[in-house]
Amino acid sequence: MTGLVSMVGVGVLFFLAHLSTAGNLNKPSQEKESILELPPALEKVLQERLPEWHLPARSDFIGRWEGFLKTEQIPFVSWGDFDGDGGEDLALILIGARLWKVVVFIKAGDSYRLIELKGFPGGKSFFRDNPPQDFRLQTIKKKSDQAGRCRFDALVLSSLKNPDSLIQYCWNPQYDFFSVSRQNDMTD
User: What's the pLDDT tens digit per position in 126-143?
Assistant: First the structure.
């Protein structure tokens, strides 16, 4: 876990170092270099399993994400112990050629298990019709009142257009998968 925490620190420092060179973010480029450095084992899983997808780059900080450049918050990543095993798991918004998706990397020994989240209104059209910059990922700690029925840390995809619109996911050990535990209107 210490390694992941240091990598997170490095990622945040990398993010802050690039604030002064952000340039004109209203014109997305073909740049694929992310502001976040991932642990090597996680990077390997991402490259092997999802080579056509990438982490958001500085050029993706447009629209509602543009304001995050002035903060230390990164809207496309969230850390937590989502499966309750004591390891630090990671959720990411990934961008493809025409769509985007939300994936969770569950720490499994020296590697990570990849899980693509489901349960979005409209299925794949949700990712086509809504830009990723309209959303952010957040973790709700299991002891929080907001975690509701979740036995472990909950993952939330929330709308930046309407803070009341969200989808909350909880790990379901019975099915070895994430279930939607709460959903407020995401169709706005």
Answer: 999 999 999 999 999 987
In a domain, residue 188? The reply is no
Q: How many domains, in total, are found in the chain?
A: 1
Please give the full DSSP string across 61-86, using - where no structure is assigned: --GGGGGGGGSS--TTEEEE-TTSSS
Residue 125 belongs to some domain of the structure: yes
Contact 102, 124 (CB under 8 A): no
What range does the domain containing 50 cover?
Answer: 2-183
Grouping H, G, I as helix, E, B as strand and the rest as coil, residue 119 is coil
pLDDT of amino acid 151: 87
Determine contact, residues 156/175, Cβ cutoff 8 Å.
no
Q: Which residue has the tokens 């099915």?
A: 175
Reported for 170-173, long-range contacts at CB under 8 A and 24+ positions apart, including other chains, are: 171/82, 171/83, 171/84, 173/83, 173/84
Q: How many Å from the N-terminal Cα to the C-terminal Cα in the chain?
A: 38
